Amino acid sequence: MANSEKNDTLILGAGAAGLSAAIELWKADAPFTVVEKETQVGGLARTLELGEFRTDIGPHRFFSRNQYLYSFIEDVLGEEWIPVERFTRFFIQGKFFLYPVQLGDVVKKLGVVKSTRVLLDYLCEVAKRPFHRHDPRNFEEYVIRNFGRSLAELNMLNYTEKIWGLPCSELSTDWAMQRIKGLSFVAAVKSAIFKAKQGPKTLVDRFFYPEYGAGYLYEQIQNKISQDRDVHLGSLVKSIDHDGSSVTRVRMEVDGEEFVMDPAWVISTIPITDVLNFLNPSPPQDVIDAAAQLKWRGIVHLFLKIDKPQVTRDQWMYFPDTEIPFGRVSEMKNFSPRMSPADKTSLLVEYFVWDGDEVWNATTAELFERSIEWLDRFGFVKREEVIDCHSYRIRKAYPVYDIGYEERLGVIKDYLAGFQNFFYAGRGARFKYTNQDHSLEMGIMAAKSIIDGKRYNIDEAGSEKEYMESYPLQGAGKPSS
Length: 481
Ligand SMILES: Cc1cc2nc3c(=O)[nH]c(=O)nc-3n(C[C@H](O)[C@H](O)[C@H](O)COP(=O)(O)OP(=O)(O)OC[C@H]3O[C@@H](n4cnc5c(N)ncnc54)[C@H](O)[C@@H]3O)c2cc1C
What we know:
By secondary structure, the chain is α/β, with parallel strands linked by helices. It is 36% helix and 22% strand. Strands 7-6-16-17-18-15-19 form a seven-stranded mixed β-sheet. It has a five-stranded parallel β-sheet with strand order 9-2-1-13-20, with helices on one face.
């Protein structure tokens, strides 16, 4: 027996995409219900409260070129959204380098000989350009051609392999196109010299952050919409029934009870491979096979509460060197002083993992032992200064762009395109390596498709040029610098 109105929209997942869709429908006075499996909102951008401390699960800076989003967020957070001057560094071959790079800093730390080598390698790649017979076939070829081998090996290839757990020669160029498109050797040098304020996206040196953590934005959206709409937390999808062209019924477990809805529309923001598992009848075998070959990379976090007021000035630091077991360390207090008590601070240590590998299975105590010696060696924290520690695991943190993933994804997307009342939006939902801004956009696009009665192309979110020029979301907002 269904217990919802037929014109309701069902939103699966209360992360950035799910809640941006929700609030857009809420503003349009449209009916909807949100179902989220965790006991709090925010998804990958949620913020945990641990006694007097708060931490994101992976540090989240907000940056977007879409002015509509600044107004959208300010509408929710008002003054509780603060500008942060970015200070981040890379630790390479025993030295901390400023990031975004500054020429003087690089030359000083790398030395004249290595710096000259970086330049010569780049010029060598430029000279080879007219003779290339094909476009770069993988991430490794892309970065070497665009930056030269020395720079690529300094911090691009090793860090990328650490994140993805695969050789860069097995990663698609899509990863480069999405993350470092617009960043070039020349742009990096220009930025290093002029410290440009409006450079390509990876070079920005200021961002906005909710005062009480990234997840505070989503907590505030939840507060607004749950005045007159249902947001069911700790609730699970059991099956998504369909007739081949529409979703007809969704069975869920809400507050331990069976909950059934016959929604007019479904906006799914849960990982695409999970959605396929819920479909009843099951998708065709080629779709199931394609999904089985999509890879996800996980993250394990170690969160340390520390008995001193500050460790570094950095919001986060990258550790590409392979002998260092973790990939990134963040100090949440440097995002906002509200994240720790005044006389204490915290560090968030991130390990990139495969589901079920040794680090994934490590206990908190084992993770602490893996980390503390290095943290001490860098002068960050001594064992006796650690008050407490916690660990967290995220199974599907990163959709992996290995070679051939687009074809597999294409098979799944072609199949899902057959469902008229079904939208899928968000990072895991579209298997797209997006940040919050793009997830927010995707959710808004899905909601607007329902409100306006015409389908917007959700794939345009995250392909910056296209959606900035042609997508109808335009508006006044806070300038991003
Ligand atoms: C370590 C890390 C660092 C990041 N840093 C940044 C950053 O600095 N800046 C930035 O802008 N972005 C950053 N991101 C990306 C950002 O977190 C995501 O783009 C965004 O939060 C994704 O939102 P989403 O709604 O698309 O997906 P999700 O956040 O994954 O939301 C999906 C929701 O669905 C729920 N769900 C899953 N299965 C079910 C089910 N069966 N039933 C019900 N609910 C379900 C999940 O619990 C989740 O709440 C980072 C991500 C990671 C992992």
